[in-house]
Amino acid sequence: MAASTVRINLDGKPINPLTILMIGAGGFIGSHLCEKILQETPHKILALDVYSDKIKHLLEPDSLEWAGRIQFHRINIKHDSRLEGLIKMSDLTINLAAICTPADYNTRPLDTIYSNFIDALPVKYCSENAKRLIHFSTCEVYGKTIGSFLPKDSPLRQDPAYYVLKEDTSPCIFGSIEKQRWSYACAKQLIERLIYAEGAENGLEFTIVRPFNWIGPRMDFIPGIDGPSEGVPRVLACFSNALLRREQLKLVDGGESQRTFVYIKDAIEAVLLMIENPDRANGHIFNVGNPNNEVTVRQLAEMMTAVYANVSGEPALEEPTVDVSSKEFYGEGYDDSDKRIPDMTIINKQLGWNPKTSLWDLLDSTLTYQHKTYAEAVKKAISKPTTS
Ligand code: UDP
Prior knowledge:
- This protein is α/β, with parallel strands linked by helices.
- Helices cover about 40% and strands about 15% of the residues.
- It has helices spanning about 30-40, 55-60, 80-90, 100-105, 110-120, 120-130, 180-200, 235-245, 265-275, 280, 295-310, 325-330, 345-350, 360-385, and strands spanning about 20-25, 45-50, 70-75, 90-95, 130-135, 165, 205-210, 215, 250, 260, 260-265, 285-290, 295, 320-325, 340.
- Helix 1 links the parallel strand 1 and strand 2.
- Helix 11 (about 295-310) crosses helix 14.
- The protein starts with 18 loop residues before the first strand and ends in a 5-residue tail after the last helix.
- It binds uridine-5'-diphosphate.
- Uridine-5'-diphosphate binds next to helix 8 and strand 9.
């Protein structure tokens, strides 16, 4: 975009160029948000992360249109005194830093709780320095639906009042303490409460985002290619990995859990609206998801298998899926959210945002990316003789 074009917000007011501190800019969401901001706005980004691989293409010097509008700081927020200074220099802090892969919640609960709660210094610094904060939480704070506790054949299970998740009325329902899966959700819930309290008692200007399964290119990693061989990423990357290797897709506990998936590029539009409309976004918690893209994990596996056959030109396996128990796949202490349908009333009313991309279309563009990016590397890795 021509940085000189005057941008207008939803209330018809001009948008002043901002300096945005993005903590966790090098991750999946951060990389897409940086791209969007650089391509479509005049805002500056102070990009903070311990990794920069996913934004490498945005950091190359000089030739790019946005040179000078993004600055990378390799900082671990746990122990770096520069953090507060960077917050003071910025108009807005966006905090994306988190451990957010379910495979870690029950196996590395301490890291999960520390990274998501104890290390959340940005909240304190934003509050003390009167700086605006957009904090990324998770739809997982809802935990399980009320409906999941009803008898299997109860007609009430069909009533949206028992499963649609609303920011201002739904309770947060987690399993017992030994189900360490909920360590993440619980840490995230507590930090939401801390931010809310900072708003109420100290006037912190905040927005909380609850992403509902955002997926797309650059999400997580492909084990053994750009991540550890034994690593377990989220479902999109697990299934992509299996498709690339022509292995069966593993369905945890029958693949009966339901999810709604939203395309990362749709979701990023919502975040940009929050950035540029503080009067409409401050003080709010927003679900960001696509209620129209609901599937069971089994249906997702079937759809990804069909899409990948189209994209790669290779026929699908005769039996593309296999059932595994959660204990076998994730280990002790795993538990699951049964169903996640976001209520969209608040984001619609405040920001007029709606998701656009169907599940089929978003899988088509994402698996095209996965195939282009990884197919060769996976073939090479498979053909290497294994050392005994
Ligand atoms: N899942 C699965 N096979 C896999 C990876 C995940 O069946 O190879 C299931 C998992 O048990 C959960 C759903 O897929 O029910 C979504 O998992 P994900 O890791 O993407 O994160 P979540 O939505 O639970 O936060």
